[in-house]
Amino acid sequence: MNTTILLFLLQDGITNGAIYALLGLALVLVFAVTRVILIPQGEFVTYGALTYASLAAGRMPGTAKLAVVIGLVAFAFDLYAMRKTLHVPKVARAFALHVAFPVVVLLVSMWAADQRMPAGVSLALSLLIVASIGLSLYRIVFQPLAHTSVLVLLIASVGVHLAMQGLGLLFFGAEGQRGPTLLTATATLGSLRFTGQGMAVYGITIAFIVGLWLFFGLTLYGKALRATAVNRLGARLVGIRTTLSGQIAFLLASTIGALSGILIVPITTLYYDTGFLIGLKGFIAAIIGGLISYPLTAVAALVVGIVEAFSSFYASNFKEVIVFTLLIPVLLLRSLAAPAVEEEKD
Amino acid sequence: MSTLLEVTDAHVSYGKVEAVRSVSLTVAENEIVTIIGANGAGKTTLLSAIMGVFPLKGRVSFLGEDLARYEIEDRVARGLCLVPEHRELFATMNVEDNLQLGAFRMSKAHAARGFEHVYTLFPKLKERRKQLAGTLSGGEQQMLAMGRALMGSPKMLMLDEPSLGLAPIIVAGIFEIVAKLREEGVSVLLVEQNAKAALKVADRAYVMELGEFVLNGKAAEIATDQRVAASYLGFAETAAS
């Protein structure tokens, strides 16, 4: 191996690792706040990527309609839950969140699909569509189960993953798609070639991580989310609704998932089921971080990306095997180091 | 004095075990009421159930409004606040953030006044405002838990074993604050094993045994009651040491 190949593999690994880092952070966030292991994270990736690709190609994505349909269901859930106290501001809020928001996004997408809009518009619309799906999904599936065990939440999570994957096949077909790059410029540094897309991946990932850090460190809602993660009862006792924290967590996770997908789809062809595998890599990083530590997850994600890049060079048939094998020593170490914990605390 | 909290015929169960049986109590505005009793009498369970942490059979009304359909968060918004036995602080966040979250439902201006109020009551917290809650001493954690509750401007504060595991001098300080809160118009429902200190600060008292109230009356009268003196006051002294 020469230095050029080494640097090239490192670069490739870091690009993928940055995306796994985003996904891993989202998984840690959702688990800490809601105790849901977010298997459908991969579907958010797929939906984001393929919605973006469809919009850019001038096709109307089915996901925008799905957002409206499950938004209506979520609104019905809210109305039913509020049937005894039909408090107007609360109903209005639910309507805005679950009905008005996806409908407006649907209308804008219908208009934009005909117009051949710049990539930025497709990107923004895809994020909004997937974010709205994530929000309503939390309302329909996970909010009613909020008090149940981690296992029940996991089973529901697997169910959502399967349903979303099936719908993905329905919306996007079995064909793979690619999206347009966000930045077309390229730069060379020594023997390394930096594509615009690669730069976009780094830039957006770093911006998002910094943004999250500021959100959690400085804003009241960010702190409320952390508080729910640290001590759920304590948070409720100061009046922070678990539902609100769950909504924010799912909103962030679905946006991050969609964003990751949009960043990858110009680099690799994505199929309706590719997201799952990408999500799992983020999951490995999150597990290495113990589903608690954000910095450890980010570092682990970079390691996963680099290991993947090198194993695809040396033993491409065993790429996935090698990456997933990373989990075994980590789990062994963790189970030896950690004291026995009760399965359910609250 | 009008009634603030009224609990009528409350039952609380853990599965098949009925931890609280047919309990009724009232707390008026500007009143300090204490519930004393031995470990395991059901005091903490009762307080948590009033807050909505556990389901409660019976009626709980606050400011004349039935609380049955309200979740914990809605009860907080109505001015009922619990400082739980385990304090439930946000251990990995600093003192200031903990306090700020205590005013989660309040306006910014309100929170600013809250900070001033809490820092005057507990100057120690101001010194430690950048320290993580989990690294505070037990007494400071109790102060923080009370401070966090006060940030939401409650009309009534329910304190669960505020003296638990604290040095006597700190306990005295905490009870002074309880008395001061009443002067500021906050009612207090105080659950304590340290019966002697609780009876000294309270107006009225209920004595709880095995999930039931066995005695109630003016705190001063309860303090001189033969049975209470024998089973709680003596016991409380050994427990506090």
Radius of gyration of chain A: 20 Å
On the 0 to 100 scale, the average pLDDT of chain B is: 89
Describe the main β-sheet of chain B briefly.
6 strands, mixed
Shape of chain B: globular
What proportion of the residues of chain A is helical, as a percent range?
over 70%
With helices defined by DSSP (H or I, 4 residues minimum), what is the helix count of chain B? 10
Measured between the Cα atoms of the first and last residue of chain B, the distance is 37 Å
SS-derived structural category of chain A:
mainly alpha
Oligomer state of the chains in this structure: heterodimer
- Integer-rounded radius of gyration of chain B: 17 Å
What is the number of E strands of chain B?
10
What is the string of helix and strand elements of chain B? EEEHEEHEHHHHEHEHEEHH
Please provide the count of β strands of chain A: 2
- Helix content estimate of chain B: 40-55%
| Span of the ends, CA to CA of chain A | 53 Å
What would you call the structural class of chain B? alpha/beta
Structure, described:
The complex is a heterodimer of chains A (346) and B (241). Chain A is mainly alpha-helical and 346 residues long. Chain A is 75% helix and 2% strand. The longest helix of chain A has 32 residues, at 3-34. Chain B is 41% helix and 27% strand. In chain B, the strands form two sheets. In chain B, strands 6-7-8-3-9-10 form a six-stranded mixed β-sheet, sandwiched between helices. A four-stranded antiparallel β-sheet of chain B has the order 2-1-4-5, with helices on one face. Chain B starts with a strand and ends with a helix. Chain B has 241 residues and is α/β, with parallel strands linked by helices. The longest helix of chain B is centred in the last third of the chain and has 16 residues, at 168-183. Classes of the chains: A mainly alpha (346), B alpha/beta (241). Chains A and B meet through helix 8 and helix 9 of A and helix 2, helix 3 and helix 6 of B.
